[in-house]
Here is the input.
Amino acid sequence: MSYPGMKVKTPIKAKVILFLSFLIPFVFVFIYVWNTSTDLVGSDDMYLIKGGFIESYLKGTMTFDDLWRPIHVSRMLGYNLMQIANIRLSSMNSQILVFLTPFFMLASAILIYREYRKSLILECSSEFIAATFLVLTLIIFNIIQWEGLQSDCGLLYQSSMPFFIASFIYLELFLLRGDRKYLPAVFILMPLAMLVFNGRLYISFIPTLCSIFMCYLLNYRSNLTKDFWLRALLIGLFIAVTATLYLWGINFKENTSYNLSEVFTHPLEVSEFLLAAFASSVVGVDAFFACTYISFDTMLIIGLIIVILYVFALALFFRSRMYERTYLPLFLILQTFFYLGFITIGRFELGKGYGMASRYTCVSIYGLAAMVWIFMFILAHHKKPKALLKGAIFTGFLIIFSGHFLTSIAVWNVRPERKAYFEKGYDIAFRVDTATPEELSHFLAEPEQVRDSLLLLRKYKLNAYREKSAKE
Here is the structure.
């Protein structure tokens, strides 16, 4: 479906405003990354070094199976290839991969803006659309997601998002809008997202697509054509084949910690974990520890409020028929729901407070951005919204942005301590022969895996050892 004005040339003033809407949050995140990250290998990468594809590559015995082999149930082909390029080009300077992270976030933001503009162009000027998009970029680039911004393995969370967003956009254009010229893009982007740059989003992508497909069927059940069903069959088969390729050879019994019986026997703990995860996308774990007046019970209340806001936003999405212009906000919200749901099933036994981990906000902040997007659409669509509706929307804005502001201050204040903690790893790495298991646990809970991996890096003068070898 096309809309008048969608291809109107953007005025210079709007371009300047849009540039600033991207630049200001992007620079803030990049400064944080620059000042916090180190070039020391991340903890999760220890599994990829000794006994992983990096050892095979260094010894000249690497095959495609080494790159394709999953860690638990995650295939990391794209990340593995980036690590190989990093080894060849910079002797495995991990900071280079960390610096790529904000640019993947920027790609996601640009893709979202294209749909954001399309959804508002009938009611709003280009200048207004560009200016209000700052509200979304402040969420997307927020340092509340610090765990995904400080090490090379954090790139797993960020690099996948633009591929999944792009896959959905072109899938919607082909399947739901009937634009066949976008089919080649679907056939390219879908495998890239699911098989190459899947990160941690593979667990939520297909359930999200199925849910949106069902919503579409309910919305247009009386107007579905034979051509639509043929497109749906084609895409369904293609997704099934792609998913089969991904899952082929993975032993779920050995490589997953999902225990559904535990979920059903501890429903209260599961609910608390999930609410804490929703809350942490607004009030991050650093703010939780920094503010004495924020208790875990407070976080649960905040999580419940966020869930209510999501339900409210979804009701507005369908009631306003926003889906006639784009389904992307629904995709981002449902992706957040399914992702946090699967994480809860797999991780809640680590403790209900573990749901506040910052790494999960790398996904959930996109759900928040989609919620705010829906609110902006409603305010633009209704020139004179009712006082109750307007009050509820601005209350949501106040909760989200006050929480992010508080968390940003807390994350920035703890930055020097976090930097010192990472740099402590250098001393351990250069004493790897004599380092105690307790010291090696600084990297990973499996000290011998750390020792063997660091020894391998030292042997080939990679990562932290490259500078020392250059001076010798």
